[in-house]
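Continuing the batch. This is chain 6 of the set; chains 1 through 5 are on the previous pages. Same settings as before, nothing changed between runs. Recording input and output for traceability.
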Amino acid sequence: MPNSKNIIWSIIAGLLGGALFSMMMKGGLSAMIGLCLSPLPVIMAGLSIGFIGATIASAAGLLLLSILTFGEATVIYFAWDIAPSLLLVYLALKHRTQNKGTVWYPIGYMLSWLSLLTAGIALLTILAIVAALDTAIASTVSNTAAEITATPV
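Output for chain 6:
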């Protein structure tokens, strides 16, 4: 269990990660830099304090982002930054003790899990876009059909 000093550092890291992600709303070069750096505070809190520190940082970042964006970008922040960061911290801290010493979770396996998570998020994003386009196409076709049938000859 982290002490109060570690909890404060975790909250600061989470707020920093949420603020970096919220730079995406501004657009431009600063948005890309903020988007690339936004998972790092959560990962650093997790690797230095532990998985509980990463969870506290994640909660603080999600809370800040839900206040700043009124909940619009919170789901995207969770899917793009928080879930991969928590998975990476969990796997990086996973270890076992053997006769030769401590054996940590292999890096290749961590990358494999991150790749699978990224593929799943990409698939869900594509399905959401297709579903949105499907309703947009259907409404456009019905509006066009209504205009054609309502036009006097």
